[in-house]
Amino acid sequence: MAVVSTLTGCGGGDGGGGQLPNVSTVPPAADGGTSTKPTPPTPPATTTDNTDCSTSSTKVATAPSSSTGGQGAAGVIVRLSPFETVALAGRAMAAVTPERRIAAVIDRVAAATGKQGAGGRIFAAVDGADRPHIERMLSASTALVAFDRIIPAAKLEALVNAYAADPDVVGAEADDMMNVRAVPTDPDYAQQWNLSSPTVGVNLPAAWDITTGAPTVVTAVLDTGYVPHADLVTNLLPGYDFLTSIAIGNNGHARGPDAIDPGNWVTREEAADRSSRFYNCDPRASSWHGTKVAGLIGATANNGMGIAGVNWYGKILPVRVLGKCGGPMSDVIDGLRWAAGIDVPGAPANPTPAKVINLSLGGKGRCGDEMQRAIDDVIARGTTVVVAAGNEGNQFGLDRPANCRGVIAVGSTDNTGRRAWDSNFGADVLLSAPGANVLSTSNTGSTSPQKDTFSADSGTSMAAPQVTGVVSLMLTVNPTLTPRRIAEILKQTARPAVGAAVQSCRARPAGAGILDAAAAVAAAARR
Fold it and tell me: Which Pfam families does UniProt cross-reference here (predicted)?
């Protein structure tokens, strides 16, 4: 039986920094409301000139595949074996529903672990009020078995093994937490060098000569939700909140048609309280991460305020899957399917399916069977999936879902064109985009939302949306492009940066090179 390794919390920045980020504002940079393209700015002086290259020459040690994340998890994703392989002992096949089969698995695991020393101690720890129950069916053969509290990592692995060993189960994995993939930095850069520079940026002005986007292309942002920022709200669709935990969601309700971000702050008291749902999470102010990602993709241009997004007119579908301390993998899986127009039990049909999905999130471990199935389903619908590669500076073993088959994994570069010191890299990264001191839409609130602002962040979380936005431009000029063909064009048109000639182990961007929006959109229009 397959046992899938679990995730740990985010290793950097908005997902796992040990300090509360500073909140500051940047005055809106007005474009006058008349120009067709913003004036190309000059790249600021870099602040990421770290020459420590130890991770590029030695293999980084990772936890064994059977290990579990440090936070533990509140559920186990269980996949049943094909129905025809089940021994029914004379019972009528029509009467054995997937829900009844999962319930029987729960009972058998409880009985089996109760008869074994270590297993019995594990189940004793989740007995009574924490008895496992079927939270929901993720698909016709896969269920989320949930507990009323977090199962510590030390006990979780054996519990997952117990479910995987059941004869009616083909796979089990912990419903671990995903986290955002950004690194907060000095938010004082007021110009979007990352979009305009033809050497170390993504060369968007020439792409905008071909197209500035269209509302017919929908881009889904699976993240913390959004705040109705004045420079963004025109291009937003209603979206959906897929967080099942009221505590993580922090908005007083579970799933529903409200993707607004109420804030994802975690206090030091919550992180230190062993009885808290957020014990061992990193104390932090609210990140407004989803709003930043959405702004990079689709902030309104030529409106006399703020910044310009990559796609000026494309629609953004916010899908909320992250809250306080991240979000469960099962919620991300449901959000992926729904964003692409695939039915999800208990959720309404998506009236505006996305053609490209941005995932500026991740966690430790291999992709996992259920995450890979969801991505396969999405790609089969013709939807491209773009994922941040992660911020640990690792060459081996990307974060998941950046290591899943079929996704476009994006690394980050600094303003000299070199690989950002914290960007993951290696064979699974397709290409890079600027991810150091990147300006976007944000909010001044350190807890709940306050006033609109603009701030600069760093990380692969900021690089991935630029690729996502360019993919939406490519689909504007050629709606027939498949996810595979889009990846091929991006790889073929990526370019090395002029600054990459510096002799350094970080001299080359991760993957095929830096995203070249003009070349990619032009190539898409020719096909």
Answer: Peptidase_S8
Q: Tell me phi and psi for residue 490, to 5 degrees.
A: -60, -40
How do residues 462-487 score in pLDDT, each as one tens digit? 999 999 999 999 999 999 999 999 99
Distance CA 505, CA 125 (A): 49
- 39 and 103, same domain (yes or no): no
* Closest-CA residue to 223 (of 108, 19, 359): 359
Looking at the fold, whether 112 and 195 belong to one and the same domain comes out as no
What is the residue whose two structure tokens read 């305009």?
A: 196
Is pLDDT above 60 for 285?
Answer: yes
Q: Count structural domains, the chain.
A: 2
Domain membership of residue 114 as a residue range: 73-175
Distance, CA of 118 to CA of 344 (rounded, Å):
37
Q: Are 124 and 271 part of one and the same domain? A: no
Are residues 164 and 187 both part of a single domain? Answer: no
- The reply to whether 374 falls in a domain is yes
What pLDDT, on the 0 to 100 scale, is given for residue 154? 73
Closest of 12, 11, 463, 23 to residue 286, by C-alpha? 23
Start-to-end Cα distance in the chain: 45
Q: Which residues, at least 6 apart from 524, have a Cβ–Cβ distance to it below 8 Å?
A: 473, 474, 475, 477, 478, 481, 486, 489
CB 393 within 8 A of CB 423: yes
Last residue of a domain, one of 175, 192, 223: 175
Concatenated DSSP letters for 179-242?
EE--EE------S-HHHH-SSSS--HHHHHTT----TTSEEEEEES-B---TTTGGGB---EE-
**Residue 514 predicted with pLDDT over 70:** yes
β-pairing verdict for 361-362 and 183-184: unpaired
The tokens for 398 are: 């990307």
Does some domain include residue 66? Answer: no
pTM score, two decimals? 0.76
Cα 207 to the center of its chain, rounded Å: 26
Quick one: 315 and 363 in the same domain?
yes
